[in-house]
Amino acid sequence: MAGIVWVNGELLQPEQAAISALDRGFLYGEGVFETMRAYRGKVFRLAQHLDRLYAGVVEIGFTAPRRELLVAGIRGAIAAARMGDAVVRVTVTAGPDSSYRHPTTVVLVRPLSAPPMERYTSGCRVVSVPTAHAPGAALRHMKSLNYLDKLMAQRAAERAGGDEAVLVDPDGCVVEGAMRNVFAVIGRELVTPPLSRGLLPGITRTAVLEVARRFRIATQERDLPLEELRTAQEALLTSSIAEILPVATVDGRPLGAPAPGPLTCLLAAGYRSLVSEELGLSGETNSPG
Length: 289
What we know:
About 30% of the residues lie in helices and about 30% in strands. With about 290 residues, the protein is of the alpha+beta class. It folds into two domains: about 5-110, 2-Layer Sandwich (D-amino Acid Aminotransferase, Chain A, domain 1); about 115-280, D-amino Acid Aminotransferase, Chain A, domain 2, CATH 3.20.10. Strands 7, 8, 9, 10, 11, 12, 13, 14 and 15 form a nine-stranded mixed sheet that branches. The two termini are about 20 Å apart.
């Protein structure tokens, strides 16, 4: 695999990188991660990603590398990879012993792998999958290494002919996608589930809400029943790597407007403008896919 890995301060080729078999992240999933997108060698909203990562470290209760060291590692790995547009994944675990004082830190930089272009031009097929997790469950709002429930939901959606799973809680409310946050256009408002439903506070989710307010689009963070999502005019999925993905169908039902809908297109263009503005890039950023 092309790319570069920074492991505890050492730059390596991916196939050369290794961690201890005793690492608590490997043994018990005791760790957190962030997946970020670099545009022309610059990570969009790096500070916010690291804020979320360090909050997870504190909540789990182990030691993390100094922030300035980690930032230097990220920038050094991106430079060494010589990729303008890339996926940057940072993983921090509790390390190989029970003292919690020797974390393992891995920065993986690899080529950008966005979803297929047809998902941007024709929309995604979303399949609802029930989740039993309570909104207040400890792992719901952090990007921990315990990701099996979402991976299993995604596989269930794919077996049903979908592209993306949307998790639905016991109250019948949409929580989030298996890999992305969820928005719906209801009437004249952009609606997304509230954090109180136990979803990951997405960095892109926040940016999309900011873009909507720039365009004076009314927004609401409120409960989104599955039936409301199924009958929405438009729906979209958001993540750092995919940016904004339009939704074509929910559980096989077409939405009110063909994907991508007009509001989705406006938000996608506004998001790319925001990226260019914050990173000081001249002209358009690269196309989503």
